[in-house]
Amino acid sequence: AFHDSADRRDPPKCHPNTRVAILEKLMGWVHGLDPESLDTLIIWLNGPAGSGKSAIAQTIAELCTEEGTLLAGFFFFRSDPTRNHSRSLIATIAYQIATHFPNFRERMTAIIETDPHIFNRSLTKQMTSLIIEPFLAHGAFDVPNSRYLIIIDGLDECEDREGQLDILHTISSLFQQSPLPLIFLIASRPEYDITNVFGAGHLQQITSRLALDDGYQAWADIRLFLRDQFADIKQSHPLKAHIGHDWPGEEVLNQVVKKSSGQFIYAATVAKFVKSTRHRPQNRLEIVLGLHPARSLRDMPFAELDELYHHIFRSVLNLDGVLRVLSWHMLRDLNFYDRLSPWPISEVEDILLFDKGEIHLLFCDLHSIVDIRKSETRRDKTEVLHIFHSSLEDFLLDKSRSKNLYIDGPARYAEFSRTILQYLPSQYAN
């Protein structure tokens, strides 16, 4: 669970010369040099699935380790049974702190000997006994103006939703109980419950939100990353002698960058697939671009991305309703608008016979891949559905990848054509 744990083989981190602005902002906060976040005790780094949150958290952890300001870190991961729950969080953090401060370690050991069942108690009790009390008893923070960072990455990958919220409330109680010079970097997708907790009460007062949006030049960084990856292939691949100097060309590079939709996981998945030393890079890239069919399941380029989408959709309560709305959104030629102007959410609810406000509820657990926002292209600025990543549409329209999530385009088209014919007369009647 540590940033340098053996359990995290080859953890993601920022490619050289990418994410520069956001890394500088975070390090400025750690050093107390950012005027906008001087009083901020928690930064919530949030962004859509695959936007590079874990890579940023890992890079910050490594930078702060070098200068001695990282106190502890915990990196959740849904597929690791030791890292997909909250039960070991406080113990892991306390252990890392104990390696920094001998006095802290002595006090913590005494507490464990007095109460051997401490690790079975509530997170708040563990935090108080294993972290707050040892610090207050031995004054571990005697260095004036010192600030120590604790990183919690992938909070949304803690499988128990109540556990996610318990972690946030426990951190909030820490700052309410004592003036310890700790700061927290918490990274997660903008899940519904997590967003609500950060937006209320004491946490709202001590937290700054840092969203990975277009303001941080993800497109430019992805272009640089892919350019470097393709250059590396031409220099080091066993078949480099058979790769043209100008491969893959600007047009193809632009195509892959556009397809990424600002999604680093897409770009990284493409690079990993194309770099395979057991295949011709040119053929692998053609598979990615859909110009060449995959020969087997082993040749499916987006297996990792597909698993991420399947994981996210497992949280949906009304899957049929969600897929129906997504189908409507994706089959835009039914909308009588151009592709940049999807139908307003309120009208989609009328057409598809949903109650008012129901689409908001349907998508409340999908904020990491879909957003409901005010239209940037419609004059009335009504709310519309926005899909963050174009790769989601490719996934849903490919039965071999999406399986039970598959959207049958022709069947949905026929269904919605009938729906439109039933809806329009009622509009003219009014």
UniProtKB/TrEMBL annotation:
Do the record's keywords include Repeat?
yes
Where are its TM segments located? none
Question: Mind telling me which InterPro entries this protein's record contains?
Answer: NACHT_NTPase (IPR007111), NPHP3-like_N (IPR056884), P-loop_NTPase (IPR027417)
Arranged from A to Z, the UniProt key words for this protein are: Repeat
The organism is: Galerina marginata (strain CBS 339.88)
Name of the featured protein: NACHT domain-containing protein
Q: Where is the NACHT domain?
A: 41-188
